[in-house]
Amino acid sequence: MPESKRLFIAIEIPASVQQNIGVLSAALRKADDYGLSWVKASNIHLTLKFLGETPVSTLEKIEVGMANAAANSSPFEITLSGCGCFPSPARPRVLWLGMQADARLGQLQRGVDEALVDAGFAREKKPFSAHLTLARVPDTCPTTTSQKIYTQLVTLDTRHLGSFTATEITLFQSVLSRFGAQYTPLYRCRLGK
């Protein structure tokens, strides 16, 4: 058994919403004459905390922290809305879809972050920015190409992508390969007591 696993905690996106995102991604890919790193629709998720390479020996503490954070939350609605990029439209590196949710999403993310301090993880330094990553732009991609795709992204109507109720959080293992990332759920916690 490996001594460490690459892990993250996320809210899973329902398959029906992932399919809608896949249709939008396919439209954007037509403008991609460079070969951005597109996220498979089935891999799209809302990351609450990226843990990185993590010793297997800490899994139990992570699960306890997740359970505590989940117990202090309750299910809430998330609606996909808007889009953007990081760090700026002048130099897009990540293309993303935005979302609307009430304050419980931010509270849940902070709860997960705080609960994992006891498991040895540092608090997040950057403010939480809820988003779904569509594509990553390689460093070698000409800025004009990434700007062209970003410009097309912001003109698309994202209102039809859907909404869903977040009812649980999931600990995922991420295995990277030349065929892309493969995510395996390891542990799930329902929101609420």
Total helices: the number is: 4
The percent range for helix content is 25-40%
Q: What is the radius of gyration computed over CA atoms, rounded to a whole number of angstroms?
A: 17 Å
Order of helices and strands: EHEEHEEHEHEEE
CATH architectural arrangement? Alpha-Beta Complex
Biggest sheet overview: 5 strands, antiparallel
Q: What is the strand tally?
A: 9
Shape: globular
What's the CATH H-level homologous superfamily? Answer: Cyclic phosphodiesterase
- Which percent range describes the beta-strand content? 35-45%
Low-confidence stretches: none
Question: Which strand order does the major sheet show?
Answer: 2-6-5-4-7
The number of distinct structural domains comes to: 1
Assembly state of the chains shown: single chain
Reported by name, the CATH topology is Cyclic Phosphodiesterase, Chain: A
Output mean pLDDT.
93
CATH class: Alpha Beta
Task: Report how far the terminal alpha carbons are from each other.
Answer: 33 Å
Structural class: alpha+beta
Descriptive notes:
The chain has 193 residues and is of the alpha+beta class. The protein has a single domain (4-188), classed as Cyclic Phosphodiesterase, Chain: A. It contains four helices and nine strands. The protein has helices spanning 15-29, 59-71, 103-115, 143-155; strands spanning 4-12, 37-38, 45-55, 76-88, 91-101, 132-136, 163-166, 168-177, 180-190. The strands form two sheets. It has a five-stranded antiparallel β-sheet with strand order 2-6-5-4-7, sandwiched between helices. Helix 2 packs antiparallel against helix 3 (103-115). The two termini are 33 Å apart.
